[in-house]
Amino acid sequence: ARYADGKGWYEARVEARAPIQMDPASAVLHYAQEIFEGLKAYRNADGTVTMFRPDANAARFTTSATRLAMPHLPEGAFVESLRQLITIDREWIPQDDESSLYLRPFMFASEVFLGVRPAMEYLYVVIASPVGSYFKHGIKPVKVWVSPNYTRAAPGGTGAAKCGGNYAASLLPQQEAAANGCDQVVFLDAVEQRWIDELGGMNIFFVYDDGTLVTPPLGTILPGITRDAVMRLATDAGRAVIERPVAFDEWQADAERGRIREAFACGTAAVITPIGEVRFEGGSFRMGDGGSGETTMGIRKQLVDIQRGRAADPYGWVEKVF
Ligand code: PMP
């Protein structure tokens, strides 16, 4: 669908995937005025097709649009656009239990204009693509690299928005993580470079020896929908869940004396991933025995079972498409 100031949204349509023609002076190519979302459609054992909390993605898309000075979609249009695409692309939704149809809604400034100001024309697009299991050979704990040089988001910046520019800034630290044998980068806060923010594409939780879950507070991090679901599930299971800043030196000290027993990353792509080892400039430490922790795997199973329609969904998180 297209948007123009004074005209509103128009030309909403579903068409075969094809290249988009862009003028070289399209605003997005110069100032990165772009936002996106990522979610999945699942085919369940009984043949129904569902999405997980699409309303939460719609709400975050709106928040991101506000931060990037972009127009909002009409009420309900985000979820409706996904429903239409999934219904038309139903043959593309994988059958097997491990796979899903990945949905990528995004919006960008299409106005042909080189001045630095919010554009007056936008394009909203959704692409869909089948994706397999994140872990091909069973769940494997990941190694993470604590970036000494780069941060992801400063207070007052765009860290809480899902915009392309944030990811442009995280490519080099992610490359640095890979060069150090790690799967993901861990970002520290931009002010003191001391407090844990999040990973390149996932939020983070710590499991303490008394069973308490601790996760960094919202502000500069992306408010993950998986993070929110984990907090709700754990709280309702009677577990203490605390949002508070965790310093990197505290993580290391508490891991080494066994106070923090497990750590895990969470996000739409891999749901919940145990963190086995933490590497940083000048050292490393392991989480527990470096394997997949019991608490982490328990929460993972609970969440995946709800997402896949294998367990009751008292939260109304699972939305049926057909
Ligand atoms: N943080 C970042 C930087 C991310 O890219 C993602 C993935 N969207 C997340 C956290 C996790 O968010 P969600 O659970 O909504 O996928």
UniProtKB/TrEMBL annotation:
The keyword Nucleotide-binding does not apply. Keywords: Amino-acid biosynthesis, Aminotransferase, Branched-chain amino acid biosynthesis, Pyridoxal phosphate, Transferase. It catalyses: L-valine + 2-oxoglutarate = 3-methyl-2-oxobutanoate + L-glutamate; L-leucine + 2-oxoglutarate = 4-methyl-2-oxopentanoate + L-glutamate; L-isoleucine + 2-oxoglutarate = (S)-3-methyl-2-oxopentanoate + L-glutamate. Its cofactor is pyridoxal 5'-phosphate. Its EC number is 2.6.1.42. It holds the Pfam family Aminotran_4. It comes from the Bacteria. GO terms for molecular function: transaminase activity. CDD domains: BCAT_beta_family. PROSITE patterns: AA_TRANSFER_CLASS_4 (PS00770). InterPro entries: Aminotrans_IV (IPR001544), Aminotrans_IV_CS (IPR018300), Aminotransferase-like (IPR036038), B_amino_transII (IPR005786), BCAT-like_C (IPR043132), BCAT-like_N (IPR043131), BCAT_family (IPR033939). Pathway: Amino-acid biosynthesis; L-leucine biosynthesis; L-leucine from 3-methyl-2-oxobutanoate: step 4/4; Amino-acid biosynthesis; L-isoleucine biosynthesis; L-isoleucine from 2-oxobutanoate: step 4/4; Amino-acid biosynthesis; L-valine biosynthesis; L-valine from pyruvate: step 4/4. Belongs to the class-IV pyridoxal-phosphate-dependent aminotransferase family. This is Branched-chain-amino-acid aminotransferase. It comes from Asanoa iriomotensis.
